[in-house]
Amino acid sequence: MRPPKGRTGARRGRTPVVTVSGRCSARVSLAGMVRVRPGRRPRLIYRLLVHRGCRGEQKGFVAADFIRLVTAAHHQLNGKIMVVWDNLPGHHAHTVRAFVHSHADWLCVYWLPRSATGV
Is residue 6 part of a domain? Predict the structure, then answer.
């Protein structure tokens, strides 16, 4: 995330100083799922979230975003889904747990133990 280098018109012997603020860089979050089936090409289903630093803008994924991702995957794949999740707080939210329990016919979720994620 370093600024690009370039030439300046400074006098010989004087080091030019170029000030660069980091406010223009965006924060990018990605959540995705991979579908793997023997004999078929793998598929990637993902959601991208860009935070540009504006007030009121969402900085990262929340429980509702994970629910929308799993629902979109179910609509695209039209079958049962097995998800392996780590201990991200959004994965353990009450709304996500209620969603998992209400859609147990096509959704199977495995949560990794704390020791597996380094928490």
Answer: no
Contact 84, 117 (CB under 8 A): no
The percent of residues above 90 in pLDDT, for the chain, comes to 45
SS (H, E, C) the chain: CCCCCCCCCCCCCCCCCCCCCHHHCCEEEEEEEEECCCCCCCEEEEEEEEECCCCCCCCCCCHHHHHHHHHHHHHHHCCCEEEEECCCCCCCCHHHHHHHHHCCCCEEEEECCHHHHCC
pLDDT attached to residue 118:
58
Q: How many domains does the chain have?
A: 1
Residue 71: domain span: 22-117
For 59-98, write each residue's pLDDT tens digit: 889 999 999 999 999 999 888 999 998 888 888 899 999 9
